[in-house]
Amino acid sequence: MFKERKTKISVKKIAEFLKSDYDGDDFEITSISSMNNVKNNSLLFYSELTNFKFKIKDNVEYDLKKLDKYENIAIISTYDINKKTNIPIIFSENPRLDFQRVVKEFFTDDEFKPGIHASAIIESNVKIGDNVYVGPNCYIAKDVVIGNNTKILANTVIFGVTEIGRNCVISSNCTIGSEGFGFSYNETEFIHFNHIGKISIGDNVWIGSNCTVEKSQLDQTSIEDHVKIDDLVQIGHNSIIRKFSQITAGVIVCGRATVGEGCWIAPNAVIDGGCEIGNNCFVGTLSLVRKNFPKNSVIVGSPAKLLRKNV
């Protein structure tokens, strides 16, 4: 939902924006680059960590000496790489974060402007805030509330008593407010547990493409402020995702589960029904969590076990 902006900006202005130490030569930067596709007159970043908070190292190693053959490039990185390359370095304790800040400030524009696409269907009694974008072929059912500056991208449907906060992104092909999977067998047929509860999505929440958030059976499914959810994630009925947690691709959070504040749930992990994970936990890839874990736990395996405490 963003497009690259044509920009010319000096290295020293970038360093000033980041409040970073920089005493090298000044020259113009006109684009951004990845480590795999370097361009002249561009800005890059390098970090050995893919996750700064939990100190998860990158699986890819780069030969920084190869950067020396390019002209007028600068790199945002940590103090310890100045012996590995001769190119100008804008020093940072968290290079990935600072690179993202620079890209957002100087090198990208919002692709979608506020407005409701002509093909979107908005039912009666929907409350939509200011500067909201609703994309093509979306369906917004009655009683839905959408806060200011939120974006609902193409082909997304939102049902039930659902409230979405400010500055959120709901990506394409999502279903928010669907019925949860609740059936009981009476020896002749399955009886569906009719879901009549609510969904609350806080401010500054990101939900990736092809996700499902189920409404609660009786109470509320809750996604708190600043939660970030990747593509292909299911959030089950009556579950709670507390603020500042990140849920990556393919994760299943089953009904009545709770993910604490500031957690990282790695790809294809499953949090089983009713399980509770404390604040600042890390759950490894493909882990199956079938019991409660306290705060600051690093959890891996199937069934998941405590690997160590995150300090």
Short description:
This protein has 311 residues and is mainly beta.
Shape: globular
CATH topology of the largest domain: UDP N-Acetylglucosamine Acyltransferase, domain 1
The total of beta strands comes to 40
Please give the alpha-carbon distance between the first and last residues.
Answer: 36 Å
Structure description:
By secondary structure, this protein is mainly beta. The chain folds into 2 domains: 2-110, 3-Layer(aba) Sandwich (Udp-n-acetylmuramoylalanyl-d-glutamate--2,6- Diaminopimelate Ligase, Chain: A, domain 1); 115-309, UDP N-Acetylglucosamine Acyltransferase, domain 1. It is 7% helix and 33% strand. It has 2 helices and 40 strands. Strands 11-14-17-20-25-28-31-34-37-39-40 form an 11-stranded mixed sheet, with no helix packed on it. It has a 9-stranded parallel sheet with strand order 12-15-18-21-26-29-32-35-38, with no helix packed on it. A hairpin with a 4-residue loop joins strand 22 and strand 23 (190-192). It is globular, with a radius of gyration of 22 Å.
Characteristic terms for this protein:
single chain, 311 residues, mainly beta, Udp-n-acetylmuramoylalanyl-d-glutamate--2,6- Diaminopimelate Ligase, Chain: A, domain 1, UDP N-Acetylglucosamine Acyltransferase, domain 1, 2 domains, 9-stranded parallel β-sheet, 40 strands, globular
